[in-house]
Structures are given as structure tokens and as C-alpha cells.
Amino acid sequence: MARRAAGLVLALLLAGCGDTPVAAALRGVMPAAEAPAAALPAGGLRLTGTRQPLVFALAQQTGNRRLWRADGGVAVATEGPRIIATAGLGQMLTATRQEGPDPLEDVAALLDQPASTRRTVDLAGASREPSSMRFGLVIECRLTAARLATEILVREACTSPAGAFTNRFWADPETGTVLRSEQWVGDEVPAVTMEMR
Fold first, then answer.
1. How does pLDDT run across 167-176, given as a tens digit for each residue?
2. Whole-prediction pTM value?
3. What is the 3-state secondary structure of 51-116?
4. Are 124 and 94 in contact (CB under 8 A)?
5. How far is CA 15 from the centre of its chain?
């Protein structure tokens, strides 16, 4: 019952933030899916950097947006390789609004020309108290890429009112598909490593 209530609170928060596709997707998050704990299934997602590694199953997809869920009432929304919302990890990333195209859509172009990006995020504390909520945090980032032996590494150095951080994305050099990343999901939780297959 507590998980359903938490899911409803998160859905209401996201709906109130105007990020309707993510809010609608997260409404169906509870109860958690029965995802296998060991192997990463084809088309699955794994997060580490949390208390324990979590394996997620795809719950819903609309275009490039995907909703993933794992045991224990944990959910993550992604747009392409970027985490845009979380639930159940402690502090919640409740909404992300990207200004203009995301430079991660063309990783190979970043090898020749760095890019800048700007997005706005909303955060809510694990307590879900109104005093823990912060809206409209502007994140400004500079993306650079380097070719490694077997992959392309994109570094995204960001500044925000919640502090400075660096995200990292490892992409297949042939397709430009991001297969692994380390991403900031809030200033009160550690960065998470996301692996997609």
C-alpha cells in the first residue's frame, strides 16, 4: 500500500510539473515488475551506484522515452541514453526539460565539435515533504568526446544551483549508440551507472 501511495505522489508531482508523457508513464509504475536479479536481459537496463545493483524491465515506451521498473518500487524514465526521472532511489528527479536538441543524439559529431546544452530539472526529497522540493533548477553543460580503443567517451561537465558534476557516456563507435553511462540524478544521491542492452 505504501508503494502505491508513493507512486501516486510521484505521478501527481510529475503531472504538476507539466512533463505529461513521463507523468502518465509513471502512473503505472506501482506495483514493481518482477525483474530478474542476476542477468541483464536483452533490451534491459541495469543501475549500479545504488545500495545494490538493480535490474530493470521495460514497462512502457513512447518514441524515444522509456519507463523502466525494478523490484522494490524503483522506476527510472529515460529519453534516449539520458535519465530524465527517478522514483525509489531516495531523492527523486521528478522532471527534466531539455532546451533544444540533445547533443547525445549525434555522438560522432561531438568528436569534431564540442557542444553546449541546457536543461531544467525538478527535485524532491525522499521525505516528499513540500520543503524538500526544488523546481526549475537550470543545468548548463559542455559536452566533449574522445575516441578510445573500443568506444567513444563523451564527458558532460555541468554546473547548476545544486552543484557541479560530470556525466560520462560510453558509445559504440560504429553506431553512436550509448551503451553505458554515469549520470547525476540529484544532489542528495550518488551518481548512478546505467548499462543498457
1. 999 999 999 9
2. 0.77
3. CCCEEEEEEEEECCEEEEEECCCEEEEEECCEEEEEECCCCEEEEEEEECCCHHHHHHHHHHCCEE
4. yes
5. 17
